[in-house]
Amino acid sequence: MRAKAHPPVVPGTRVAVLGAGSWGTTFAKILADGGADVVLWARRPELAREISEGRRNSDYLPGINLPAHLRATSSLRDALAGAGQVFVSVPSQSLRENLVAAGDLLDPEAVIVSLMKGVERSSGLRMSEVIGQVLPIAPERIAAISGPNLALEIAKEQPTAAVVSSASLETAQAVAKLATNGYFRSYVNTDVIGTEFGGVLKNLIAVAIGIVDGVGYGENTKASIITRGLVEMTDFAVAYGAQPETLAGLAGLGDLIATSQSPLSRNNTAGRLLGQGYGYNDVVKQMQQTTEGLVSVGPILELAHAKGVEMPIVEQVRQVLAGTLNPRDIAPHLTTDSREPQGERTIDDGQAHGGAALWGAFKRAFDQLRDGGRGPRGA
Ligand SMILES: NC(=O)c1ccc[n+]([C@@H]2O[C@H](COP(=O)([O-])OP(=O)(O)OC[C@H]3O[C@@H](n4cnc5c(N)ncnc54)[C@H](O)[C@@H]3O)[C@@H](O)[C@H]2O)c1
Ligand SMILES: O=P(O)(O)OC[C@H](O)CO
Q1: Which end of the chain has the lower number of beta carbons within 10 A, N or C?
Q2: Residues that bind NADPH, according to the entry (predicted)?
Q3: Looking at the structure, do residues 271 and 332 belong to the same domain, yes or no?
């Protein structure tokens, strides 16, 4: 299937993508199909060769033909030379070392865009914070992209949307213009905290969903965890300064739905293995690709405790990972010791609003997808 390509907005704009795993390669294709002049950096020369000469990345994107004009290199210097926008898609724990290596090679005016959905374990920092700490650039030149973006679906050109976030709306719009084509639509916002935490937190809830899938529980359990998980995600992100609306959008609810439902999700898959009875070390061994959720649980719970935010589902995921909770016991009704009936607080604080807030969240996410197709806009 080949979606109709839109005419390029900024033809030939030179960009670099760092990291040639499943998402970096897919994002390079998105940008190339949007008309940008893309150079993809792969750590391994043999992978760079396979992409440049064979137009394939068979380990990460089996069966996908990559655009003829997409170039790949294992030279960071060549990849970064003249690149006005640099998209970074390496495992979150390796971001810092990669930025240090890239530092002097970057164009002084370049915008750095995080495609990653993790936090740095040692510091608890979001990816844009790590970028701001390592590189001498203002927040206005940093952006993050997040949304329901399972790489293989997008590489097959199945239509989807994402949100580009930056402290500067102009930066978000410039990035969104490049990251838009006939099958990929980029919205914009300026809530970097909410956008990044949405991507990090949905991974943890997707692990929980995988666990109950592995145990063999059905749709009621999963829907309960998704719904209560969204409340945890929102409480956490808002405590750190996010706008609650962002968690109701593509980077929150949208990504939570995609990741929780899809067998393509590594986080969901890891959870399923845990639910089937595999231990943490076995699961890590079986996962061939980056599974950010497994690494994020600890730092996120520490951050939650620091702000007094309760995350009972994420806490249960931690216990399953630690082997101290039987996966069969993970469930929303076990997340409190109290048998007293509790109000169903959804994503606003007013218990009286009941499901209205959640309905609003679903509706906004649906509207964003339905209306996609008319240029970058606020998400
Ligand atoms: N795959 C997806 O569907 C998807 C979608 C959206 C966001 N993301 C996010 O993108 C980021 C990258 O994930 P991915 O799916 O591409 O992972 P991946 O496992 O498919 O690929 C990771 C790539 O990074 C390379 N790598 C490993 N260690 C490295 C290091 N120390 N320095 C440089 N490169 C290193 C690997 O060789 C590989 O090419 C993650 O934060 C993930 O959450 C993934
Ligand atoms: O495969 P996962 O679980 O890392 O999820 C991939 C993307 O984040 C989905 O949006």
Answers
A1: N
A2: 22-23, 43-44, 60, 117, 151, 266, 292
A3: yes
